[in-house]
């Protein structure tokens, strides 16, 4: 009788240890899976028109040598900037739209810049600089590929609707997530965009604050604008054909396969759990054997 009681007590202790271990394991894994991380979104795409709002950053400086500008809507005759090197430095809060304009004689890069906060920025050259007003059109003759770097908020593409002529042609969204410990990062997902999508990166899941991105646009002979932008955020909102669209955010399951710490801890917990199950099986077999011996002795 005493042996049977000890066996039952031993089984109870093993079950208690086992379920305590499982509860602790689930707590640790939930913390690892659900912990906040810094996510960098990389958006690549080809568009027919690009719109962005500038932040205050020295990277926002565009070479517009050979350009003509229109600063007065009452006088639509462009003013040629004849200096050897001319640069446009936008002001914080200015919004620019860039696209191609193909005429009968030549192809041009057409940039419209506007601001509700005051000046849109300054034109700089070897002759000095002058401040622009609240609206300017910049026409740059396209002679070779150009790269315009930028820092600010950006939407990639326009949602297809009445009056929309320039759309996203193709693109991808890549999520680069920070590891739980250290500065290492891994690719947590990559998603393809469809033609006509509209893409915006947000800092919160409620879609109230747009993220600041850093990137560049490259204008080439194929009449499309190639854009690469990187920004820290929580979610990318994709709108499609006027619908609510969908959100792109890191999957917690991607952490299981890509984060080395989580993968190692998961493997360790699984191994320990198997060892506990195996040891419990051995103890149960031993206990059953002991019960049989005790029962035969009593008989």
Number of helical segments? 3
Calculate the terminal CA-CA distance, rounded to whole Å.
13 Å
Reading the helices and strands in chain order gives HEEEEEEEEEEEEEEEEEEEHH
Q: Determine the mean pLDDT.
A: 80
Short description:
With 299 residues, the chain is an alpha+beta fold. It is built from three helices and 19 strands.
Structure description:
The protein is elongated. A hairpin with an 8-residue loop joins strand 4 and strand 5. The strands form two sheets. The protein has a 15-stranded antiparallel sheet that branches. The longest helix is centred in the C-terminal third of the chain and has 39 residues, at 260-298. It folds into two domains: 2-35 and 259-298; 39-249, no CATH class. By secondary structure, the protein is of the alpha+beta class. It has three helices and 19 strands.
Write the layout of secondary structure elements.
Layout (H helix, E strand, L loop, with lengths): L1 H33 L4 E9 L1 E6 L7 E2 L4 E3 L8 E2 L5 E5 L4 E8 L4 E8 L6 E5 L2 E4 L3 E7 L4 E11 L11 E11 L6 E9 L4 E5 L10 E7 L5 E8 L2 E5 L6 E3 L3 H7 L1 H39 L1
Antiparallel strand pairs: 1-13, 1-17, 2-7, 2-12, 3-6, 4-5, 4-11, 6-9, 7-8, 8-11, 9-10, 12-15, 12-16, 13-14, 15-18, 16-17, 18-19
Helix pairs in contact: 1-3, 2-3
List keywords for this structure.
single chain; about 300 residues; alpha+beta; 15-stranded antiparallel β-sheet; four-stranded antiparallel β-sheet
